[in-house]
Amino acid sequence: MKRLAVFIVVVCSAVVLSGCKDAETPVVRIGHAPHDHHAPLYVAVQNPAYFKKKLGKYLEERVSGKEYVLISEGEEKGIVKIHSGVGGMQLIRKLHEKQTDVTFGGVPAILKMIDSGSPMRIIAPVNTGGAALVGNIELPVEDWEGFLQYIKQSEEPVRVGYKIQYSVQNIIFEEALELNGISFSRDVENSGDEVVLMNLHGAKNLLPAMRNGLIDFFVVMQPFPAEAVVSGDARIISKLTELPPKDKWNEYPCCALASREDFIAENLEIIEDLKEIFAEAAVFIKENPYESSAYVSKWLGTSVEVEEASVPNIDYRQGLDESYIRGVNIWAEIMADDGLLTGTVKRALDEGSLNEILFSE
Q1: What is the pLDDT of residue 22?
Q2: pTM metric for this prediction
Q3: What is the DSSP annotation of 294-306?
Q4: Could you give the CA distance from residue 169 to residue 238 in angstroms, rounded to a whole number?
């Protein structure tokens, strides 16, 4: 009996110690939206062998699609939990409210949240480009000039859908409309303007809205333009990189990786490991676009055909460089001029200290 009691104590102690070890392992909650711009995450979690060999750092699956172990140089550094959201401000707000610790998200939404006083930083770029103006296949519009002509000839306001407030896509689109002297509003019922912009509250609602005649066109990121084209319902009128003014949007920053200042300070090694993994994922996608399309297809539940038409059209970035930082500054200037930024970011912009509050080294 005495030996049995000792054995039980030893086993129980081992269980307790094991539980303590797991409890002491930092937990990192990563937010993302289910679309192609956040593909580095999907590639990283589905292809750990590549990252183990290439970096000695990788994400080992615990629960498919939900929980992974961050392993660096043979050591467990953290438990990574994946949280999916709808994108836009909601995704960034979850970071601010400490529902997530690191998140993929649109640069304008990040700027808006920092402007409100939220202590978060951009820790890495994710992508540039990868979005389009899409039109109903039954309409006689095939390019941007044809789109402008269609607006001028229409007896009713032309209805254009977008996914959510403060998205990269509708800011670029609205800039192009203004440059071409096209009046627009968001008042569906009483608009006397040439274009009515309609918030459909999620990218997945855009194509069904077009099919049902609620909208004629929409602006959105991939894979939704590719999905609309493959379905036979729509055509791409213009990539957003091609919209006026000429060359302004060639490398516009779309998504970035962000985290809160407190989390960065307390988990710097984990942040650096994740940045390195996602940067290498960007390299992998560029070098292996069709294999990457298969990973994205599996994660999102889209067809491989759609992803092969989508993923190669997105420029995934490896690190903060002058062009990306300059692009973020341009977003800040545009949003401040439009009255969307009036707080922390606007003051830093006026004082010439913008990069000091936006980026983490």
Answers
A1: 47
A2: 0.85
A3: HHHHHHHT--HHH
A4: 12
